[in-house]
Prior knowledge:
The structure holds two protein chains of two kinds. Chain A is of the alpha+beta class.
Amino acid sequence: xxxxxxxxxxxxxxxxxxxxxxxxxxxxxxxxxxxxxxxxxxxxxxxxxxxxxxxxxxxxxxxxxxxxxxxxxxxxxxxxxxxxxxxxxxxxxxxxxxxxxxxxxxxxxxxxxxxxxxxxxxxxxxxxxxxxxxxxxxxxxxxxxxxxxxxxxxxxxxxxxxxxxxxxxxxxxxxxxxxxxxxxxxxxxxxxxxxxxxxxxxxxxxxxxxxxxxxxxxxxxxxxxxxxxxxxxxxxxxxxxxxxxxxxxxxxxxxxxxxxxxxxxxxxxxxxxxxxxxxxxxxxxxxxxxxxxxxxxxxxxxxxxxxxxxxxxxxxxxxxxxxxxxxxxxxxxxxxxxxxxxxxxxxxxxxxxxxxxxxxxxxxxxxxxxxxxxxxxxxxxxxxxxxxxxxxxxxxxxxxxxxxxxxxxxxxxxxxxxxxxxxxxxxxxxxxxxxxxxxxxxxxxxxxxxxxxxxxxxxxxxxxxxxxxxxxxxxxxxxxxxxxxxxxxxxxxxxxxxxxxxxxxxxxxxxxxxxxxxxxxxxxxxxxxxxxxxxxxxxxxxxxxxxxxxxxxxxxxxxxxxxxxxxxxxxxxxxxxxxxxxxxxxxxxxxxxxxxxxxxxxxxxxxxxxxxxxxxxxxxxxxxxxxxxxxxxxxxxxxxxxxxxxxxxxxxxxxxxxxxxxxxxxxxxxxxxxxxxxxxxxxxxxxxxxxxxxxxxxxxxxxxxxxxxxxxxxxxxxxxxxxxxxxxxxxxxxxxxxxxxxxxxxxxxxxxxxxxxxxxxxxxxxxxxxxxxx
Amino acid sequence: xxxxxxxxxxxxxxxxxxxxxxxxxxxxxxxxxxxxxxxxxxxxxxxxxxxxxxxxxxxxxxxxxxxxxxxxxxxxxxxxxxxxxxxxxxxxxxxxxxxxxxxxxxxxxxxxxxxxxxxxxxxxxxxxxxxxxxxxxxxxxxxxxxxxxxxxxxxxx
Lengths: 774, 157
């Protein structure tokens, strides 16, 4: 078959998202928009204390509330009552111990929202409060209260350590050493559609769920295990999410809804966390403390690095070990450093749950190395861009983590492109245009970001594509579209291969009864893994269609001269044409139905120094690269920072849909800007303080910078599509690039984020006295 | 229960509802108009924005009794018979839609702006949308879409 591996670049019409019109009209149905027959509302009574032994729960008063149908506790959970992906340590409903304020203690089901609220208010429980631990370093002290008495490592959920050359000892012989402790905040996802779903147990015992989730197939297994149900009894549909960003990577409402459903058969049970509950009970980006020491020659050549990353994972695993491992892989930057010791720790505390959030440990690691690189540039009075250029890995060299970064040439090209950009070239005159009491400067960040699951857990997809009787196609999307537009991209890929207009495709969203398990919508993998699978499916189907057309046309050379056309196959030379409907009728059902399997490649390096790190995803084979520039203006009188302009230059491999990739970059940059400047989900002794949008501040339309995105668009050799993965790298850059810009503008390096006006003013007035860690 | 009469998407409505029922619940739970999204319940995010007498208002802070005699327009009420409203069309064409959960409220705020200011500046657009949070787009393409809808296609942000 002719070379279809390289599908052509698209017309502009192909860049329009399939889902946009329905979403703009308000008719696209999210999980939250489903109601149902005999509807009941379910809700959760939460602990409200960070650490306690649960002695008793009283549901009697709740059951007396008119309209309350059920009040359930751990005693009603039919299984082991534990959920989690790596370590299943989180109860559906607390049985022995409360480990954070957001723990679920009781589940109430009622006929109305009002009755539900009254029922929840009537639940009481007895606790024996325990001393809590709220600082991950204190949690590692020998006498610290333990979160999970059964965990071998105590409060240390996971530690990864990588050593290169002499390790940290290499610092001793360095003529110049800079060091810093960086404190990064807990970031809330703040997706607009809060956690929700609905469930119905039908007469045959099957529980049908519709949930706003990134992980439909895995959810079914988790629910089945936690509640000791046959997985075959659980059917889950995952419509478009109203945002997720990692916060719906794993269980939120699923087990609770299933528990409610099996106790209220024949009723549709709906649960929808309000914003405060979402803030208190949902996962957050791990707060991190980063200890960096970086040593170099006087000419700026890096010699040694010691980095220790401490991730506060809160009370449960919730992929915290995997997050810390990805942080470890990125902790040393894409630089040539002969001696390095990298340590990454995920630590249990009684704080809010740390979990997956776009970037997955890399924003923290990128901040650590990139902020420290600028400290070194300052110390050596070197241009920060030049310092990086001198130390960037060359092809075939290994990173401080010991990994070969395939395609690193793309990072050199990105740095060159950024250095030639008018923002960088014109920075001096731009600075001089600052008005009185304003200071301007540019900041830089050099980034790389791994794609996929790593060496052990198969990063795989089975894409299904069907030629329908009417000559149209049905595409079964196996990976949730949480807003990034991957479903639309799948249609685009198939449409290009089959030369059909996108509207000739019917798109099925993930549904465990109809679509195969294709993994999570996460890890910058959605287009990489499923996209390559749907490419293969479309190519196979195309070949079958063309072969059949050749036979029907009685051609000697079966497919020569045949081409797909909208709704038909044409023979260019003979002016013959057969409609796809006719072809569908002449093919067997099996021939019209193609499933193609794709597994992402794994790293060639001998896997991790220990099996645990490999299991947690270290190392990766495919990386995206970027260089970010942030142009900031600091108001000396108010401490307010305005991010005026932002440039991303990225090599993400081949670009399938530039519009969608721009969307990813724009959104990630502004989300990362919030992380740098204003977002800080505060917990005082485990109690969340800012649980609404008037106290947890996310950027608005008035704050967002002008953003320019440049894609270098090389061809990546690791898969037929030639792509890498662009969903996350955009959020790795804003914090360090903004931080570096502010440090240059203010002449003071601040070490605690976000850079609020109060902190900036204190730094300007006291030369950084406000920056001591905690 | 209070008897309430108002216009909903240009259709007369007469219904009985508790006077303190939130408009967002009335629309979504009772009338099935789920295009109006709820995302904070406290008037801070703009996802539930509807137009009341042409002005953007949060449906989560509006009570049923306040609707008496008013004109209420939801996202379901602005598309024309021939297709999308020009603002919706611009959102689609300019890549202003990602997860889409903020989109209905965002579109209605923009419609109201353009009804009152035919040719807004980029800063006026930013100001008009400042009460509508979006977590996906970084706002840039939304602002471009609104300017395009106002036929200011050449203007830079």
